[in-house]
Amino acid sequence: MSNAASSNSIFDKILSFIDYTNQSIFLTGKAGTGKTTLLKKIKETSTKKMAVIAPTGVAAMNAKGTTINSFFQLPPGSFFPGDISFENLQSGFISIQSMVSDLSYTREKLSLFNELELLIIDEVSMVRCDLLDVIDAILRSVRKNNAPFGGVQLLLIGDLYQLPPVTKREDWSFLNRAYPSPYFFDALVIRRYPVLQIELTTVFRQTEPEFIKILNDIRNNQINETGLELLNKRYLPEFNVANEVSPIIITSHNAEANAINKEKLDELTGEEYTFEGEISGEFRDLGLQAEQTLKLKEGAQIMFIKNDTGENRKFYNGKIGKVKSIKDDDIYISFPNEDDLLLEKTSWQSFEYKTDNEEAIVQQQVGEFSQYPIKLAWAVTIHKSQGLTFDSAIIDAGKSFVAGQVYVALSRVRTLNGLILKSKISTDSLRSNTEVINYMKPVKEEELDSILIKEQESFILQLVLNHFSFSRIYTGLEVMASHPEVVKSILPEFKSLLGQLNKSVNDLIGLSDRFQSQVKQLHQQNGFKDQQALQARIESALTYFSKELNLQLINQLNKNIRVKPKNKIQQQLQHLMQRYRAVIENRMALMQYGAGLLREPIAAADYISWINKYKAPKSSKPNAVANDQQAVNLQLF
Fold first, then answer.
1. Extents of the domains making up the chain
2. Which residues contact 267 (CB under 8 A, 6 or more apart)?
């Protein structure tokens, strides 16, 4: 099988997991294996309601998403799990439990969280464990669903051998009471509910077998003397630039890279030109590779920080050239053995997610930044080189590189001959984190088919059980309780009714959670081999919950609706109760509809067609639901 065919095969299987299961996935793979390409394909083809988030502004911009903190409106600081009193919290820490209980989101944001089906977190290697536990707690609370992440499927994308989470020493001295390591996989929710690890293995960036083997051995802490000797043949301490373009220096710190770039720019004679970027709308905490204030001179070495989107692509993210001339606003870039390029400004967008009138999740552009897509490129930090590809680079591994960073720097380069080492590399500087090596157990590609079938069954069952979710009934009650007429009303009997309804709804949510857990446990024992037993449980639940919704909610509302209103406020309150009753009646109709979905046996060969038929929003089946709705109404009145 060719590399391309193998890659397409694994891509297709991952897309099937996304569209036809609810299995959360950690998608990994070394640099250049196509993680970004697959993310783009999922965004283009998946029918699930999704959002893409990332830990940093630059990562969010590259993924065309938004930051984690912006999406969840998180306060700055670190988060501590478990029940901990305020006086025992270290300064700068927030208790996850207390933060969730104090949550205050707009109705639009709550709608977004409730409609969400797939949450994609890019560059997850940089996401710290406590942040993932916060996301889990928020989604469970808002969605009134005690499944991991409130029942939302997660797709975590990243390479754990690249940049690790940033953790201050003083923060970790407190966090390590709850977590064995800062990595996302040591979050309490991931340790309790492991995600499926899938690794992309076909490398597109490097093509030399020798170099690929060296990089693989470094990742796995298996580099031997032969590989190290081959690598250190690229130790060229007296290297001098002979070409028009000098290899970029990869450094560990921003200050060092900035100092090199400034020094080189100052050495050039001639006028210095300044180009200001233009911001419109909101950018919030999103970061950019591009400079707000770009300073250039003729002769300056630059690199492109964006791919050319034109038909005849003339540059890519990381391509290096030189400023040939600047006249007015015309900047010409030269490359060895290529035609000169007239530089044009480009733009980056910032986004936020909302739900529309049809309850679909839409991504809206809220801001734009316009600037030339280049930056000075005599030097760059490891952090800012992530995602870039260089034909050649200079690496000084003896200069304050922490464990694991040397691999990141080496993997930016296409070929072994493109590598220039300013100091020899030792096995100590190549050591990967043992936590990462111990965690990584990706599933074999040949095992994915059987796992996929099992997860499709679970997904089918969950689609049926979703009809027995009472989160919408809870949301409807909150909408009624927060209505201005209700808030200003001082009618004690109505306040009492709200309290009674709130208790009943919460009790029913707890009962529904237990029922769903029991059905899932029954499914785990025999799968769909005993589909009749699953169906019997579901039909029993329909009878029970229909009766309870009538007794505890509908009847209580009807008592108040049938009383003749004495004034406009009572009239308005009755109107709100009628609307809320319709929400409950609709849920009862959906339960009846859902209870019939497993009456006929489903063969494994038909799982995908079944999912395609029934995973669409329920509003797309008006006839079935409307008929059931009418039946419910006849029972009620």
1. 3-203, 209-347+355-432, 447-636
2. none
